[in-house]
């Protein structure tokens, strides 16, 4: 039989977590707002870099292309703590970028997430555009289109598939904890986002806020995956329509 007394702290924590969500607790909303701000900006910058980079790798035929593809795919598995350590060394007062005073700021967290997300967006974009290029290669040749024009055309034509790459990067960014904690410092009301708050509150035994944010993070994860599947199905319908 389950010991009700032993379960009471957990049931109370869940009840308190739901209360924080339902009442839009100020601390919870502040953490959410910063999380969306940091992740949204990081994904935007990653797409601005990753889409054209991936398209050129998918379409282009140049020396070093294979090595570049291998590097991009390898960078998808970058350990977040290593990225955080590297950026810490760059952004600290003794580092080459220390003069800008970016360490322990949301900007540093955006940079960290951008470094982690850009390879994902670029690699998935390269895969999509390369597959599409095989189908349209003869048409492009007859039209006399250069590689840049081909890349731009495929980016537009494959926009639904590429949106899934952006959503995949968004999921990675929201789930990130190691790098943003190192360069952000997890400072209350300054650089504290969902994942770092969950880690801190759990270590302190304050489960209500951690559970509340965890539930929201799960809902976001489900929404992102549903969005990926929906866009993929839409693209397939359009392709066969």
UniProtKB/TrEMBL annotation:
InterPro entries: ABC_perm_TupB-like, MetI-like, MetI-like_sf. Coiled coil: none annotated. One of its GO terms (cellular component) is plasma membrane. It is found in: Cell membrane. The chain crosses the membrane at residues 28-57, 69-91, 103-124, 207-228. It is a multi-pass membrane protein. Its main location: membrane. Residues 32-228 form the ABC transmembrane type-1 domain. Keywords: Membrane, Transmembrane, Transmembrane helix. Gene3D superfamilies: MetI-like. GO terms for biological process: transmembrane transport. This is Tungstate uptake system permease protein TupB. It comes from Pontivivens insulae. The gene is tupB.
